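Q&A log
Question type: sequence-to-structure
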Amino acid sequence: MVFLRAVLIFCLSAAASAASSLQPPAGFMQPPEHLRHETVTCPAAPPPFTGALDFRSKYDGSDNARATLNPQTEAAFRQQTQTISDMERFVSHQITAYARSGNPHYVACAVNALDAWASAGALTGDARNHTGKSVRKWALATFSSTWLQLQFSPQHPLAPYPAQQQNITRWLGKLGDLTVTDWRDLPLKKVNNHSYWAAWALMSTAVATQREDLFAASLAIYRTAMQQIDEHGFLPNELRRRQRALSYHNYAIQPLVMIALFARANGIDLRTENHDALQRLGKRIIDALDNPSAFAQRSGETQDVAFLQYPTNLAWLEAWCQLYTCDAPLLARIDTLRPLQNTRLGGSLSYLLAGKE
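Response status: OK
Response body:
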């Protein structure tokens, strides 16, 4: 079965390459596991968010490290962005369900919801602060990285929806243009994990919209990130998060690994940038999962490792093991955490990249 799946994915990759100038990794364009057509009741989708992107930060009142959560403003942030986060989960769930079942009813649910948001111009409002810009690119990363799975599915599930597909693709491109504007021309001291997540949103949107300019914008941010990684595998701007330095290094690498994986699918090997900087960063983080002393020493603070309680924060390891050879202990760790999924990275990376449930 493993051999047959590998042959199928190779064939799909070759076919997609011939059809499109930009493509995702092969796992993102595999056929559904099953083909079922039982009627599915589509739940009500969240209404389009058309207001200004003006949200409280969960770190309001913190010092320059921006590492101390403010419970009051975090609650306000969750409440203000609830509709957007609900939509991210809604779309991801529908498209993941289609990948498992092949049931076209899930496709209809996703298409109708995204089409409504596209027609309303959702998330295109004025981003009045850093948090608003962040929410826009996070949502875009979710929508594009899941949507392209329908676009590249060999079952052609979007064939019945040509007008909606065009509308949604146009909207994703608009959000991509806004994301470029939101995160361009920052001084290096402010280029951090947020810029990297913007770059991932641009990469997945570039593939979804066949926009070479967005692809190039993503690569430019990625290459800046690689130049920021020092000889020991640290990101200075993430070390400033003090007790959360390891947590934010882990957060920063997630989009970078996905960008490298998508770039490789398009014939560009980014792993060699700045003398294998991505590998230095990943090794530094992986070593610290069991022993964060190096981060404590460099940041001057005992590390808060609460993020390890949530496997979604380690979903990037599935992509990592596609780029690099993972040793037996790391593979065993990943296996105990599966299925590893992260809505903003495309859903279940265990399924998409490793064929694991």
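Response note: The radius of gyration is 20 Å.
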